[in-house]
Write a sequence for this structure.
């Protein structure tokens, strides 16, 4: 199984280590030629969505990646990644891939002092550690979107077909079950 | 500081990896930086080149100017306080800054003690020329480290020296026998646990960025190839002829730091680079502040 990890900026190495420990082969995606391999799944990691969105376009990988997601390549999108696949942003005029029918609020918990760690129930898995770093949350979900987890009444994880959108960072905690869930969908 | 908070602060630095943090002095510059792809901005009243030119005592920026920049951009905002000036740090925490740089660029407020950063909830980044300095700052509570390249000079030589020194010393600790680590901890004046971490993991326990003297896409890529996990650019951008273009080029160079063909394209037509000052020509070595 070969997974492409968007590596233009952010915490992509953490995802890579986790996926490799689970037996997947990983390819870092930085430019168009990196997309020549066949990929069974995509990871959009945490980082700054404004930087990642700008670099996706400037490095000519925006359209091919959007096409892959639209054609059904499974995707695990965490934090900034969730912002990249959201159809709408509540407090930002930008839209990036727009493949996940949800409305996401950026920096929804405020600045770094609002960052936190918690343990919450996640559907199909059980209780999962969740690390939120200047995180977004999901305000509204469209048709066909399954809510996987909430925290204090806010939606923080969803699944839409083979697209997984998480407001937190499963790559930062020791638990591997979310990455396993994703690999099972690939 | 509770352990969880420290973890969260180290993790914010992990999210900044592969990115460029830019010095800005106004909300307008902050917006230019954000649009050019900065992963965070450092809010400053004067950029290091001007601090160097003006001389005198330089201090924390006006909080009003910092909050103006916080309102202008959605990316993390950092600000500098003087070495040892824990009240400036308290003020920056009160305005909910995302990261404090306890920085040698400003005039030190204490020539012996650094800030006890464990007392704070907000994260700190500190400069380090070598492994001992880095681990001492981490022991005090820093959750991110950067080189102490000479700010405001446009001369990358010191950042290179610090990064090579750090890598060399880390390699040395990795290659040591376990019974030698106790003595090394004493030599570097740091707790054994931190040396043991470096021995086992072959890296610092926090993210390490390059800073000081980075002026071109090639400088930024050089620091990345030497092992930096991201880059601070201070005077290099807004002291150059075409800040917007240079900023975007440096961002792309940090992402694709091993692609020399792309680096060649990025280095074209950037206009005037900042006027550099060679290491030998400067009177004041800021890297010597706070060890």
């Amino acid at each position: 199984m070969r997974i492409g990890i968007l590596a233009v900026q952010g915490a992509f190495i953490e995802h890579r280590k986790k996926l490799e420990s689970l037996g997947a082969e990983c390819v870092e995606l930085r430019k168009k030629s990196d997309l020549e391999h066949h990929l069974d799944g995509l990871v959009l990691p945490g980082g700054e969505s404004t930087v990642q969105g700008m670099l996706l376009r400037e490095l000519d990988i925006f359209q091919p990646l959007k096409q892959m997601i639209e054609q059904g390549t499974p995707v695990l999108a965490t934090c900034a990644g969730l912002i990249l696949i959201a159809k709408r942003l509540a407090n930002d005029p930008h839209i990036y891939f727009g493949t996940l029918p949800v409305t996401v609020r950026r920096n929804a918990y405020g600045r770094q002092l609002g960052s936190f760690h918690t343990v919450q129930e996640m559907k199909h898995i059980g209780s999962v550690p969740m690390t939120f770093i200047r995180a977004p949350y999901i305000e509204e979900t469209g048709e066909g979107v399954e809510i996987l987890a909430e925290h204090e009444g806010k939606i923080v994880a969803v699944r839409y077909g083979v697209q997984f959108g998480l407001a937190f960072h499963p790559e930062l905690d020791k638990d591997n079950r979310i990455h396993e869930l994703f690999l099972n969908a690939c | 500081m509770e352990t969880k908070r420290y973890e969260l602060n180290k993790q914010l630095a992990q999210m900044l990896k592969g990115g460029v943090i830019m010095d800005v002095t106004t909300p307008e510059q902050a917006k230019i930086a954000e649009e050019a792809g900065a992963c965070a901005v450092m809010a400053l009243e004067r950029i290091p080149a001007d601090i160097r030119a003006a001389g005198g005592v330089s201090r924390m920026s006006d909080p009003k100017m910092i909050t103006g920049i916080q309102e202008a951009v959605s990316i993390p905002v950092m600000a500098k306080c003087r070495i040892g000036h824990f009240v400036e740090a308290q003020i920056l925490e009160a305005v909910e800054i995302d990261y404090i740089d306890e920085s040698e660029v400003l005039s030190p407020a204490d020539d012996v003690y650094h800030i006890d950063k464990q007392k704070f909830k907000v994260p700190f980044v500190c400069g380090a020329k070598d492994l001992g300095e880095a681990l001492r700052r981490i022991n005090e509570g820093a959750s991110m480290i950067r080189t102490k390249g000479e700010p405001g000079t446009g001369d990358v030589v010191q950042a290179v020296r610090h990064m090579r020194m750090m890598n060399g010393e880390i390699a040395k600790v990795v290659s040591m026998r376990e019974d030698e680590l106790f003595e090394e901890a004493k030599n570097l004046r740091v707790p054994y646990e931190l040396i043991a971490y470096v021995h086992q993991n072959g890296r610092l326990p926090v993210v390490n960025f390059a800073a000081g003297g980075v002026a071109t896409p090639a400088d930024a890529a050089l620091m990345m190839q030497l092992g930096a996990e991201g880059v601070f650019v201070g005077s290099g951008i807004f002291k150059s002829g075409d800040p917007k273009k240079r900023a975007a080029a440096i961002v792309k160079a940090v992402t694709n730091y091993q692609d020399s063909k792309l680096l060649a394209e990025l280095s074209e037509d950037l206009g005037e680079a900042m006027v550099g000052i060679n290491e030998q020509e400067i009177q004041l070595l800021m890297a010597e502040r706070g060890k």
Remarks:
- Residues 103 and 236 of chain B are 18 Å apart (CA to CA).
- The radius of gyration of chain B is 18 Å.
